[in-house]
Amino acid sequence: MKPLNKDLFNMKRLKVSLAMAFWLSVVTFPIMVIKINTINDTVIWRWGNLALIVILGLFGSYIWNYALDRMKERKGESNRLKETLSGLYQRLRSNPKVKKPVLAAVVLVIAAFPFITSMYSTSILTTALIYVVLGLGLNIIIGLGGLLHLGYAAFFAVGAYTYALLYQYFQIDFWIALPLGGLFAFLFGLLVGIPVLRLRGDYLAIVTLAFGEILRIILNNWGPVTGGPDGISRIPRPSFFGIDLKLQGSINLTYYIMVLMVVITIIVVRRLEDSRIGRALEAMKEDEVAAEAMGIDIMKSKLTAFALGSMWAGFAGVVMAAKTTKVTPDSFGLMESVIVLCIVVLGGMGSIPGILLGAFIFKIVMEYFRVFAMYRMLIFGAVLVIMMVFKPDGLIPKIRRKYTVEKEGA
Protein backbone atom coordinates (compact mmCIF):
# COMPACT_ATOMS: atom_id res chain seq x y z
CA MET A 1 0.00 0.00 0.00
CA LYS A 2 1.33 3.44 -0.92
CA PRO A 3 1.74 6.11 1.75
CA LEU A 4 -1.22 8.43 1.97
CA ASN A 5 0.75 11.60 1.22
CA LYS A 6 3.19 10.21 -1.36
CA ASP A 7 1.32 11.66 -4.31
CA LEU A 8 -0.63 14.31 -2.42
CA PHE A 9 0.85 17.26 -4.32
CA ASN A 10 0.58 16.87 -8.06
CA MET A 11 0.97 19.69 -10.58
CA LYS A 12 -1.37 18.13 -13.14
CA ARG A 13 -4.08 17.75 -10.52
CA LEU A 14 -3.48 21.33 -9.34
CA LYS A 15 -3.92 22.68 -12.88
CA VAL A 16 -7.22 20.81 -13.27
CA SER A 17 -8.41 22.13 -9.89
CA LEU A 18 -7.49 25.72 -10.82
CA ALA A 19 -9.46 25.38 -14.05
CA MET A 20 -12.46 24.01 -12.17
CA ALA A 21 -12.30 26.81 -9.58
CA PHE A 22 -12.14 29.42 -12.37
CA TRP A 23 -15.11 27.86 -14.18
CA LEU A 24 -17.12 27.68 -10.94
CA SER A 25 -16.44 31.36 -10.22
CA VAL A 26 -17.58 32.33 -13.73
CA VAL A 27 -20.81 30.31 -13.48
CA THR A 28 -21.75 31.60 -10.01
CA PHE A 29 -20.55 35.20 -10.57
CA PRO A 30 -23.97 36.74 -11.44
CA ILE A 31 -25.63 35.10 -8.41
CA MET A 32 -23.00 35.18 -5.69
CA VAL A 33 -21.12 38.41 -6.51
CA ILE A 34 -23.62 40.83 -8.03
CA LYS A 35 -26.45 42.09 -5.84
CA ILE A 36 -28.86 44.75 -7.10
CA ASN A 37 -30.58 47.08 -4.64
CA THR A 38 -33.87 47.88 -6.38
CA ILE A 39 -34.78 50.56 -3.85
CA ASN A 40 -31.71 52.74 -4.39
CA ASP A 41 -30.95 51.46 -7.93
CA THR A 42 -27.42 50.52 -6.95
CA VAL A 43 -25.22 47.50 -7.56
CA ILE A 44 -23.38 45.90 -4.65
CA TRP A 45 -20.23 43.94 -5.55
CA ARG A 46 -19.55 41.11 -3.09
CA TRP A 47 -15.94 40.26 -3.91
CA GLY A 48 -15.54 38.32 -0.70
CA ASN A 49 -18.02 35.72 -1.99
CA LEU A 50 -15.94 35.38 -5.17
CA ALA A 51 -12.77 34.71 -3.17
CA LEU A 52 -14.61 32.14 -1.04
CA ILE A 53 -15.95 30.35 -4.12
CA VAL A 54 -12.48 30.19 -5.70
CA ILE A 55 -10.88 28.83 -2.52
CA LEU A 56 -13.61 26.24 -1.87
CA GLY A 57 -13.71 25.24 -5.54
CA LEU A 58 -9.93 24.83 -5.65
CA PHE A 59 -9.68 22.72 -2.50
CA GLY A 60 -12.86 20.77 -3.20
CA SER A 61 -11.82 19.91 -6.75
CA TYR A 62 -8.30 18.97 -5.65
CA ILE A 63 -9.55 16.65 -2.91
CA TRP A 64 -12.11 15.12 -5.28
CA ASN A 65 -9.51 14.35 -7.97
CA TYR A 66 -7.09 13.06 -5.36
CA ALA A 67 -9.76 10.70 -4.03
CA LEU A 68 -10.50 9.47 -7.57
CA ASP A 69 -6.81 8.73 -8.17
CA ARG A 70 -6.54 6.90 -4.86
CA MET A 71 -9.65 4.87 -5.69
CA LYS A 72 -8.09 3.70 -8.97
CA GLU A 73 -4.88 2.73 -7.19
CA ARG A 74 -6.67 0.83 -4.42
CA LYS A 75 -9.22 -0.97 -6.57
CA GLY A 76 -7.46 -4.31 -6.23
CA GLU A 77 -7.00 -3.81 -2.49
CA SER A 78 -10.74 -3.07 -2.13
CA ASN A 79 -11.63 -6.36 -3.84
CA ARG A 80 -9.26 -8.26 -1.53
CA LEU A 81 -10.76 -6.52 1.51
CA LYS A 82 -14.26 -7.46 0.34
CA GLU A 83 -13.24 -11.11 -0.02
CA THR A 84 -11.59 -11.04 3.43
CA LEU A 85 -14.68 -9.58 5.08
CA SER A 86 -16.87 -12.11 3.26
CA GLY A 87 -14.72 -14.97 4.52
CA LEU A 88 -14.76 -13.58 8.07
CA TYR A 89 -18.55 -13.28 7.95
CA GLN A 90 -18.93 -16.86 6.74
CA ARG A 91 -16.64 -18.16 9.50
CA LEU A 92 -18.54 -16.23 12.19
CA ARG A 93 -21.83 -17.45 10.75
CA SER A 94 -20.73 -21.09 10.83
CA ASN A 95 -19.25 -20.86 14.35
CA PRO A 96 -22.03 -21.63 16.87
CA LYS A 97 -19.97 -20.31 19.79
CA VAL A 98 -20.09 -16.85 18.27
CA LYS A 99 -23.33 -17.01 16.31
CA LYS A 100 -25.65 -17.96 19.18
CA PRO A 101 -24.55 -15.27 21.70
CA VAL A 102 -24.63 -12.55 19.03
CA LEU A 103 -28.05 -13.66 17.84
CA ALA A 104 -29.36 -13.79 21.42
CA ALA A 105 -28.04 -10.26 22.12
CA VAL A 106 -29.65 -8.89 18.95
CA VAL A 107 -33.01 -10.50 19.79
CA LEU A 108 -32.85 -9.13 23.34
CA VAL A 109 -32.11 -5.57 22.16
CA ILE A 110 -34.90 -5.70 19.55
CA ALA A 111 -37.43 -7.01 22.07
CA ALA A 112 -36.52 -4.48 24.76
CA PHE A 113 -36.13 -1.46 22.47
CA PRO A 114 -39.60 0.10 23.06
CA PHE A 115 -39.10 -0.12 26.83
CA ILE A 116 -35.61 1.41 26.97
CA THR A 117 -36.21 4.29 24.56
CA SER A 118 -38.81 6.98 24.02
CA MET A 119 -42.04 6.63 22.08
CA TYR A 120 -40.60 9.00 19.47
CA SER A 121 -37.57 6.74 18.85
CA THR A 122 -39.83 3.68 18.61
CA SER A 123 -42.00 5.44 16.05
CA ILE A 124 -38.98 6.41 13.95
CA LEU A 125 -37.58 2.89 14.03
CA THR A 126 -40.99 1.51 13.03
CA THR A 127 -40.99 3.81 10.00
CA ALA A 128 -37.47 2.63 9.14
CA LEU A 129 -38.64 -1.00 9.33
CA ILE A 130 -41.53 -0.19 6.98
CA TYR A 131 -39.01 1.16 4.48
CA VAL A 132 -36.89 -1.95 4.97
CA VAL A 133 -39.84 -4.03 3.75
CA LEU A 134 -40.38 -1.60 0.86
CA GLY A 135 -36.70 -1.80 -0.06
CA LEU A 136 -36.69 -5.60 0.05
CA GLY A 137 -39.82 -5.68 -2.09
CA LEU A 138 -38.34 -3.33 -4.69
CA ASN A 139 -35.15 -5.39 -4.53
CA ILE A 140 -37.10 -8.32 -5.99
CA ILE A 141 -37.99 -6.19 -9.00
CA ILE A 142 -34.70 -4.31 -9.47
CA GLY A 143 -32.04 -6.30 -7.61
CA LEU A 144 -33.14 -9.74 -8.82
CA GLY A 145 -35.12 -9.03 -11.98
CA GLY A 146 -33.17 -6.00 -13.22
CA LEU A 147 -36.40 -4.10 -14.01
CA LEU A 148 -36.08 -0.36 -13.37
CA HIS A 149 -39.25 0.66 -11.53
CA LEU A 150 -40.06 4.32 -10.77
CA GLY A 151 -43.68 3.92 -9.70
CA TYR A 152 -43.26 1.65 -6.69
CA ALA A 153 -45.10 4.06 -4.40
CA ALA A 154 -48.30 3.18 -6.27
CA PHE A 155 -48.31 -0.30 -4.71
CA PHE A 156 -47.57 1.28 -1.35
CA ALA A 157 -50.68 3.42 -1.88
CA VAL A 158 -52.77 0.37 -2.87
CA GLY A 159 -52.05 -1.26 0.48
CA ALA A 160 -52.67 1.91 2.49
CA TYR A 161 -55.94 2.77 0.75
CA THR A 162 -57.08 -0.85 0.94
CA TYR A 163 -57.12 -0.67 4.73
CA ALA A 164 -58.49 2.90 4.76
CA LEU A 165 -61.39 2.15 2.39
CA LEU A 166 -62.22 -1.24 3.88
CA TYR A 167 -62.48 0.31 7.33
CA GLN A 168 -64.38 3.39 6.19
CA TYR A 169 -67.06 1.49 4.27
CA PHE A 170 -67.06 -1.99 5.82
CA GLN A 171 -65.48 -1.52 9.28
CA ILE A 172 -62.92 -4.23 8.50
CA ASP A 173 -60.22 -4.78 11.11
CA PHE A 174 -56.48 -4.27 10.59
CA TRP A 175 -55.65 -7.98 10.81
CA ILE A 176 -58.08 -8.80 8.00
CA ALA A 177 -56.99 -5.82 5.90
CA LEU A 178 -53.29 -6.75 6.17
CA PRO A 179 -53.41 -9.85 3.90
CA LEU A 180 -56.01 -8.19 1.67
CA GLY A 181 -53.69 -5.21 1.15
CA GLY A 182 -50.93 -7.53 0.01
CA LEU A 183 -53.34 -9.44 -2.24
CA PHE A 184 -54.69 -6.30 -3.94
CA ALA A 185 -51.16 -4.96 -4.45
CA PHE A 186 -50.20 -8.36 -5.92
CA LEU A 187 -53.08 -8.15 -8.41
CA PHE A 188 -52.27 -4.53 -9.23
CA GLY A 189 -48.67 -5.57 -9.87
CA LEU A 190 -49.93 -8.12 -12.39
CA LEU A 191 -52.08 -5.46 -14.09
CA VAL A 192 -49.10 -3.11 -14.36
CA GLY A 193 -46.77 -5.90 -15.47
CA ILE A 194 -48.88 -7.10 -18.40
CA PRO A 195 -48.63 -3.89 -20.54
CA VAL A 196 -44.87 -3.51 -19.97
CA LEU A 197 -43.78 -7.08 -20.69
CA ARG A 198 -41.87 -6.15 -23.84
CA LEU A 199 -40.32 -2.96 -22.47
CA ARG A 200 -36.91 -2.62 -20.87
CA GLY A 201 -34.51 0.04 -19.64
CA ASP A 202 -35.57 3.68 -19.84
CA TYR A 203 -38.88 2.88 -21.53
CA LEU A 204 -39.87 0.57 -18.68
CA ALA A 205 -38.94 3.25 -16.12
CA ILE A 206 -41.06 5.88 -17.90
CA VAL A 207 -44.11 3.61 -18.14
CA THR A 208 -43.94 2.55 -14.48
CA LEU A 209 -43.55 6.20 -13.51
CA ALA A 210 -46.68 6.98 -15.54
CA PHE A 211 -48.65 4.22 -13.80
CA GLY A 212 -47.66 5.58 -10.40
CA GLU A 213 -48.77 9.11 -11.32
CA ILE A 214 -52.02 7.82 -12.85
CA LEU A 215 -52.95 6.09 -9.60
CA ARG A 216 -52.08 9.17 -7.54
CA ILE A 217 -54.23 11.39 -9.78
CA ILE A 218 -57.15 8.93 -9.56
CA LEU A 219 -56.94 8.94 -5.77
CA ASN A 220 -56.73 12.73 -5.82
CA ASN A 221 -59.75 13.27 -8.10
CA TRP A 222 -62.04 10.48 -6.95
CA GLY A 223 -63.25 12.55 -4.02
CA PRO A 224 -66.56 10.80 -3.21
CA VAL A 225 -64.73 7.51 -2.60
CA THR A 226 -61.15 8.32 -1.59
CA GLY A 227 -61.69 11.69 0.04
CA GLY A 228 -59.74 13.53 -2.66
CA PRO A 229 -56.74 15.63 -1.59
CA ASP A 230 -57.84 15.45 2.06
CA GLY A 231 -57.57 11.67 2.05
CA ILE A 232 -59.04 9.42 4.73
CA SER A 233 -58.40 10.00 8.42
CA ARG A 234 -59.23 8.35 11.75
CA ILE A 235 -57.92 4.99 10.61
CA PRO A 236 -57.65 2.76 13.70
CA ARG A 237 -54.31 1.45 14.88
CA PRO A 238 -53.80 -2.31 15.31
CA SER A 239 -55.58 -3.94 18.22
CA PHE A 240 -54.33 -6.86 20.30
CA PHE A 241 -56.89 -9.69 20.27
CA GLY A 242 -59.68 -7.13 20.06
CA ILE A 243 -58.30 -5.02 22.93
CA ASP A 244 -57.91 -1.33 22.02
CA LEU A 245 -54.55 -0.15 23.30
CA LYS A 246 -53.47 3.32 24.28
CA LEU A 247 -51.12 5.36 22.10
CA GLN A 248 -47.92 3.93 23.63
CA GLY A 249 -49.22 0.37 23.43
CA SER A 250 -50.35 0.80 19.82
CA ILE A 251 -46.98 2.16 18.74
CA ASN A 252 -45.18 -0.70 20.50
CA LEU A 253 -47.49 -3.26 18.90
CA THR A 254 -46.92 -1.72 15.44
CA TYR A 255 -43.18 -1.91 16.07
CA TYR A 256 -43.33 -5.63 16.89
CA ILE A 257 -45.55 -6.25 13.86
CA MET A 258 -42.93 -4.63 11.64
CA VAL A 259 -40.08 -6.57 13.27
CA LEU A 260 -41.93 -9.82 12.52
CA MET A 261 -42.73 -8.67 8.99
CA VAL A 262 -39.08 -7.76 8.31
CA VAL A 263 -37.95 -11.19 9.52
CA ILE A 264 -40.53 -12.94 7.32
CA THR A 265 -39.60 -10.76 4.34
CA ILE A 266 -35.89 -11.54 4.72
CA ILE A 267 -36.61 -15.27 4.93
CA VAL A 268 -38.87 -15.17 1.87
CA VAL A 269 -36.46 -13.07 -0.20
CA ARG A 270 -33.52 -15.29 0.80
CA ARG A 271 -35.46 -18.42 -0.15
CA LEU A 272 -36.54 -16.74 -3.38
CA GLU A 273 -32.92 -16.03 -4.32
CA ASP A 274 -32.04 -19.70 -3.93
CA SER A 275 -35.14 -20.95 -5.72
CA ARG A 276 -35.70 -21.71 -9.37
CA ILE A 277 -37.68 -18.47 -9.75
CA GLY A 278 -34.82 -16.45 -8.27
CA ARG A 279 -32.27 -18.05 -10.59
CA ALA A 280 -34.52 -17.25 -13.53
CA LEU A 281 -34.84 -13.62 -12.42
CA GLU A 282 -31.07 -13.25 -12.04
CA ALA A 283 -30.50 -14.80 -15.46
CA MET A 284 -33.05 -12.40 -16.95
CA LYS A 285 -31.27 -9.51 -15.26
CA GLU A 286 -27.91 -10.45 -16.77
CA ASP A 287 -29.12 -11.07 -20.33
CA GLU A 288 -32.73 -11.52 -21.44
CA VAL A 289 -31.82 -12.99 -24.82
CA ALA A 290 -29.46 -15.57 -23.35
CA ALA A 291 -31.95 -16.41 -20.59
CA GLU A 292 -34.73 -16.95 -23.10
CA ALA A 293 -32.43 -19.10 -25.23
CA MET A 294 -31.82 -21.29 -22.17
CA GLY A 295 -35.56 -21.93 -21.83
CA ILE A 296 -36.58 -19.27 -19.29
CA ASP A 297 -40.02 -17.78 -19.83
CA ILE A 298 -39.18 -14.05 -19.78
CA MET A 299 -42.81 -12.90 -19.71
CA LYS A 300 -43.65 -15.13 -16.75
CA SER A 301 -40.49 -14.06 -14.91
CA LYS A 302 -41.28 -10.36 -15.34
CA LEU A 303 -44.84 -10.83 -14.11
CA THR A 304 -43.55 -12.81 -11.13
CA ALA A 305 -41.08 -10.05 -10.22
CA PHE A 306 -43.71 -7.32 -10.48
CA ALA A 307 -46.33 -9.25 -8.53
CA LEU A 308 -44.08 -10.46 -5.69
CA GLY A 309 -42.38 -7.10 -5.26
CA SER A 310 -45.72 -5.30 -5.25
CA MET A 311 -47.18 -7.61 -2.62
CA TRP A 312 -44.67 -6.53 0.03
CA ALA A 313 -45.39 -2.88 -0.74
CA GLY A 314 -49.07 -3.62 -0.11
CA PHE A 315 -48.31 -5.12 3.30
CA ALA A 316 -46.15 -2.12 4.20
CA GLY A 317 -48.89 0.26 3.04
CA VAL A 318 -51.45 -1.29 5.39
CA VAL A 319 -49.08 -0.91 8.36
CA MET A 320 -48.23 2.66 7.38
CA ALA A 321 -51.92 3.58 7.22
CA ALA A 322 -52.46 2.06 10.67
CA LYS A 323 -49.41 3.85 12.08
CA THR A 324 -50.23 7.33 10.77
CA THR A 325 -54.06 6.90 11.04
CA LYS A 326 -54.41 8.98 7.87
CA VAL A 327 -53.65 8.56 4.17
CA THR A 328 -53.52 11.20 1.43
CA PRO A 329 -52.61 10.88 -2.27
CA ASP A 330 -49.65 13.25 -1.90
CA SER A 331 -48.03 10.80 0.52
CA PHE A 332 -47.46 8.39 -2.38
CA GLY A 333 -46.00 10.62 -5.06
CA LEU A 334 -42.86 10.29 -7.12
CA MET A 335 -40.65 11.27 -4.19
CA GLU A 336 -41.67 8.16 -2.25
CA SER A 337 -40.67 5.94 -5.18
CA VAL A 338 -37.35 7.78 -5.44
CA ILE A 339 -36.71 7.35 -1.69
CA VAL A 340 -37.24 3.58 -1.86
CA LEU A 341 -35.08 3.37 -4.99
CA CYS A 342 -32.34 5.36 -3.23
CA ILE A 343 -32.48 2.94 -0.29
CA VAL A 344 -31.89 0.00 -2.64
CA VAL A 345 -29.10 1.74 -4.54
CA LEU A 346 -27.45 3.20 -1.43
CA GLY A 347 -27.41 -0.13 0.40
CA GLY A 348 -26.53 -2.28 -2.59
CA MET A 349 -28.81 -3.80 -5.22
CA GLY A 350 -29.51 -7.43 -4.48
CA SER A 351 -27.96 -7.23 -1.01
CA ILE A 352 -30.31 -7.84 1.92
CA PRO A 353 -27.89 -6.51 4.60
CA GLY A 354 -27.23 -3.51 2.36
CA ILE A 355 -30.91 -2.65 2.10
CA LEU A 356 -31.30 -2.97 5.87
CA LEU A 357 -28.41 -0.55 6.38
CA GLY A 358 -29.62 1.80 3.64
CA ALA A 359 -33.12 2.07 5.11
CA PHE A 360 -31.82 2.72 8.61
CA ILE A 361 -29.35 5.35 7.41
CA PHE A 362 -31.88 7.10 5.20
CA LYS A 363 -34.86 7.21 7.56
CA ILE A 364 -33.24 7.35 11.00
CA VAL A 365 -30.31 9.67 10.27
CA MET A 366 -32.42 11.99 8.11
CA GLU A 367 -35.11 12.10 10.79
CA TYR A 368 -32.66 13.12 13.48
CA PHE A 369 -31.21 15.75 11.14
CA ARG A 370 -34.44 17.72 11.12
CA VAL A 371 -32.52 20.69 12.54
CA PHE A 372 -30.97 20.93 9.06
CA ALA A 373 -34.37 20.66 7.36
CA MET A 374 -33.49 23.23 4.70
CA TYR A 375 -30.34 21.35 3.70
CA ARG A 376 -31.28 17.71 4.31
CA MET A 377 -32.02 16.84 0.69
CA LEU A 378 -29.01 18.85 -0.50
CA ILE A 379 -26.74 16.88 1.83
CA PHE A 380 -28.37 13.61 0.86
CA GLY A 381 -27.99 14.39 -2.85
CA ALA A 382 -24.29 15.09 -2.35
CA VAL A 383 -23.89 11.82 -0.43
CA LEU A 384 -25.58 9.89 -3.26
CA VAL A 385 -23.29 11.47 -5.86
CA ILE A 386 -20.23 10.55 -3.78
CA MET A 387 -21.58 7.02 -3.32
CA MET A 388 -22.17 6.52 -7.03
CA VAL A 389 -18.63 7.67 -7.83
CA PHE A 390 -16.63 5.94 -5.10
CA LYS A 391 -18.84 2.97 -4.19
CA PRO A 392 -21.26 2.28 -7.08
CA ASP A 393 -22.13 -1.21 -5.75
CA GLY A 394 -23.59 0.26 -2.53
CA LEU A 395 -22.53 0.22 1.10
CA ILE A 396 -22.76 -3.58 1.34
CA PRO A 397 -22.62 -4.96 -2.20
CA LYS A 398 -24.04 -8.35 -3.01
CA ILE A 399 -21.44 -11.09 -2.88
CA ARG A 400 -21.80 -13.39 -5.86
CA ARG A 401 -21.59 -17.07 -5.11
CA LYS A 402 -18.62 -18.94 -6.48
CA TYR A 403 -18.91 -22.55 -7.52
CA THR A 404 -15.96 -24.87 -7.93
CA VAL A 405 -15.83 -28.33 -9.48
CA GLU A 406 -13.50 -30.83 -7.85
CA LYS A 407 -12.24 -33.72 -9.90
CA GLU A 408 -12.53 -37.19 -8.51
CA GLY A 409 -9.37 -38.41 -6.87
CA ALA A 410 -7.97 -34.88 -6.50
Q: Can you lay out the helices and strands and say which pair or pack?
A:
Elements lengths: L10 H22 L1 E4 L4 E4 L1 H27 L1 H20 L1 H21 L2 H26 L8 H18 L3 H20 L8 H20 L1 H4 L5 E2 L13 H28 L1 H11 L1 H6 L4 H27 L1 E2 L6 H14 L4 H17 L7 H15 L20
Antiparallel strand pairs: 1-2, 3-4
Task: Classify the fold: give the CATH topology of the largest domain.
Answer: ABC transporter involved in vitamin B12 uptake, BtuC
Which blocks of ≥5 consecutive residues have pLDDT under 50? Answer: none
The tally of helices reads 16
- Rg, please? 25 Å
Largest sheet: 2 strands, antiparallel
Percent of residues in helices comes to: over 70%
Query: What is the terminal-to-terminal distance?
Result: 36 Å
Decide which structural class fits the backbone: mainly alpha
Estimate the global geometry from the Cα principal axes.
globular
In the sheet with the most strands, the strands line up as: 1-2
User: From the 3D coordinates, which CATH architecture of the largest domain would you assign?
Assistant: Orthogonal Bundle
Number of domains: 2
Give the class-level CATH name of the largest domain. Mainly Alpha
List how many beta strands DSSP finds.
4
| Mean pLDDT over the full residue set | 82
Q: H/E order of the elements?
A: HEEHHHHHHHHEHHHHEHHH
Give the strand content.
under 5%
Q: What does it look like?
A:
By secondary structure, this protein is mainly alpha-helical. The chain folds into 2 domains: about 10-75, no CATH class; about 115-390, ABC transporter involved in vitamin B12 uptake, BtuC (Orthogonal Bundle). The chain has helices spanning about 10-30, 45-75, 75-95, 95-115, 120-145, 155-170, 175-195, 200-220, 225, 245-275, 275-285, 290-295, 300-325, 335-345, 350-370, 375-390; strands at about 35, 40-45, 230-235, 325. The strands form 2 sheets. A two-stranded antiparallel sheet has the order 1-2. The chain has a two-stranded antiparallel ribbon with strand order 3-4. Helix 6 (about 155-170) runs parallel beside helix 8 (about 200-220), helix 6 (about 155-170) crosses helix 13 (about 300-325) and helix 10 crosses helix 11 (about 275-285). The radius of gyration is 25 Å and the shape is globular. The model has no long low-confidence stretch (mean pLDDT about 80).
